[in-house]
Every structure is written in C-alpha cells, then in structure tokens.
Specification:
Keywords: Repeat. InterPro entries: PPR_rpt, TPR-like_helical_dom_sf. Pfam families: PPR, PPR_2. Helices cover 74% and strands 0% of the residues. The chain has 344 residues and is mainly alpha-helical. The protein is extended and about 80 Å long.
C-alpha cells in the first residue's frame, strides 16, 4: 500500500522530536508530495534542502521531474532538466526515461523519439524500458510499422524486447486489425470464421470480454457458425478473468449444439477451475473428458497437479502423477510443479 500521507505525517513528527531529516528522508518526502499531485510542496522541500546545506542528489531532482511529468507539465520538466545540466548534473537513463515517459503520456511521441535519438548519440546506456515506452506510444498513435521498425532497431543493438514490449505491439496490431475489420463490413465483404476468431482472440488478450462477446454474437447474427476454436477462445477469456460460471455455460452450450470439445478446450476449462480452487468440479470434468474419448495430455496432468498441490491435495496429486507414469506420458511439463510442491 502506498500511504503517502502517512509517510508525510511521520516525517513531520520526526522534526517535532528534534530529529533532523537527511537528504534521503527529504527526497522521500518530495516523492510523497509528487504522488499526491502537490509538486509545489515538493519544490518547497527542495528549498529546505538547499537551506540546510545539502546538495540535492540525482534521485532528488529526478523525483521532482517525475512529479512534473505526472502533472503533465512537460515544459516545466524540460526546463528542470536544462537547469540540472547547467548546475553540472548529467542526466542519467532514469532521468531521461522519466522525461521520455512523460512526453509519451501526453502524446508527444515525435518529441520523445527525438529525445531517444539524442540519447543514442550520447553516452547513455539505453535499455528495454526506454525503447518499450516509445514503441507503446507509437502503437497508441497507430503507427505500428514505425513501432516494428524501432523493435528491429533495438534488437540489432542487442536489446531484447520484454513482455511489455510485446503487449504494446499486440495491442497496436489488434487496433489496426479492428480497423480492417470495420472497412470489410463497410465494403460489404463478409468476414469468415477465421476473421471473427482472430478478432475475438484479440479482445480476450486485452481482457475486453464485453467486446469479445459482442463479436461472437455478431458472428452468429451474420450466419457464420462458431466452431470449436471460437468457443475455446472465449472460454479461455472467461477463465483468465475468473468468470468460471460463464466459461462453464459456454462449454455446455457448445456440447448441446453437437460440438465435441477437444483437448485444448478441456485443458482450458480445467485450468480455469483450478484457478478458482474448484477441485471437485475439476475432477468431474477430467473424468468426463476421458469418458468422452478425449485423451488427457501432459498439459492436462500438469494443470491438475498444480491445482492439487496448491489446494494441498497431496494424495490425489501423487496418485495422478503415478497414473501419468504408468501411461508413459511425457512428464517433463510436470516435473517442475512436482519438485517444487512435493515437500508441502
């Protein structure tokens, strides 16, 4: 929990007891004021720091810079960086990253890119955070091609993208895909099952289940019958959001329509049930899966083992593991879970 007000009160009590705060304590105080959107108080603390004869650290000034960016005062942030340079402070990657992030948040992607290019020419050690920030901003501006080019550029420099980088790209490309879908509809081109499934999957990846369901219903209204993959995608979306009853409803709906759930569908729902700790229902579904002729794979067993261990159902977990070994299934997926949990 971020109790900024409480921290401020504690520091004020320190002073009332005659304990003089040092530069680090005062920097924490500035940070609290900045997060409470009271940057002017933060600058007052900076004045106190100077009066006490302390020399502000790079972190102190970067904290104020972040506060200005949080308020959207980018011009003030730029001025602060210039003052820092005039006073002999060399902005580091954190300082520049803070400013870069602030520029992107107010939609000044072009300015952010120019700052990134300036950093590239300097002696800064660029990292994945700086590039990912700009890539995310480009994607939000629907400049996906530019974002992909920057991705290639960062990889050529030996900087590997992380989850944040890829999530930004997925969202950006999905936005473009939605535009293409809308144009198809406007021009009278009927999307097929693959088009709808891709769109539903994109919405589920972004946890936009309402839009995913609307697209699913639109598909049905347009006479395009959902297939097993359509249902599995939406079931997965519900499971990830822990809306397990909706996931079960869809599962029964597809079965009632004569569709045969495949192993991926079963694994998806089993994983969702384990996530909400419905062990008994999970076992019932597992037995149904086998009764219907679907053969559990190593992922099925791995998911069940994880669920059993997390719920401290050690006996069932061991029995399941032995069953898996008897069937000579590939148990590599399960060893990590088994070794981590067997001593519980």
């Amino acid at each position: 929990m971020k109790h900024y007000s409480v921290v401020i009160t504690l520091i004020q009590r320190m002073e009332s007891f005659g304990i003089s705060p040092d530069i680090y304590t005062l920097t924490v105080l500035i940070n609290c004021y900045c997060h409470l959107n009271r940057v002017n108080f933060g600058f007052s603390v900076l004045s106190t720091i100077l009066k006490l004869g302390y020399l502000p650290t790079q972190t102190t000034l970067t904290t104020l810079l972040k506060g200005l960016c949080l308020q959207g005062d980018i011009s003030g942030a730029v001025s602060l960086v210039e003052e820092m340079e005039n006073e002999g402070y060399q902005p580091d990657a954190v300082t520049c990253g803070t400013l870069l992030n602030g520029l992107c948040k107010i939609g000044q992607t072009g300015v952010a890119i120019r700052l990134l290019r300036k950093l590239e020419k300097g002696n800064f050690e660029l990292n994945v955070v700086l590039y990912s920030t700009v890539i995310d901003s480009l994607c939000k501006d629907r400049l996906v091609n530019d974002a992909l080019n920057l991705l290639s550029e960062m990889r050529s420099k030996g900087i590997q993208p992380n989850l944040v980088t890829y999530n930004s790209l997925v969202q950006g490309m999905f936005t473009k895909a939605k535009e293409v879908f809308d144009v198809m509809i406007q021009r009278g081109i009927d999307p097929n099952i693959y088009t709808y499934n891709s769109l539903i999957d994109g919405y589920c990846l972004q946890n936009r289940l309402d839009e995913a369901v609307k697209t699913f219903n639109l598909m049905v209204e347009k006479g395009c019958s959902p297939n097993v993959f359509s249902y599995t995608i939406l079931i997965n979306g519900y499971c990830k959001s822990k809306k397990i009853d909706e996931a079960k409803r869809l599962f029964h709906e597809m079965s009632n329509k004569g569709m045969i759930p495949n192993v991926v569908t079963y694994n998806t729902l089993i994983g969702g049930l384990c996530r909400v700790e419905r062990v008994r229902t999970t076992l019932e579904l597992f037995n149904t899966m086998r009764a219907c002729g679907q053969h559990p794979d190593s992922q099925t067993y791995g998911t069940l083992l994880d669920g059993f261990f997390k719920n401290r159902r050690i006996a069932e977990a061991m029995a399941l593991f032995l069953e898996m070994e008897e069937k000579k299934l590939d148990h590599k997926q399960c060893w990590g879970t088994y070794n981590c949990k067997r001593n519980l």
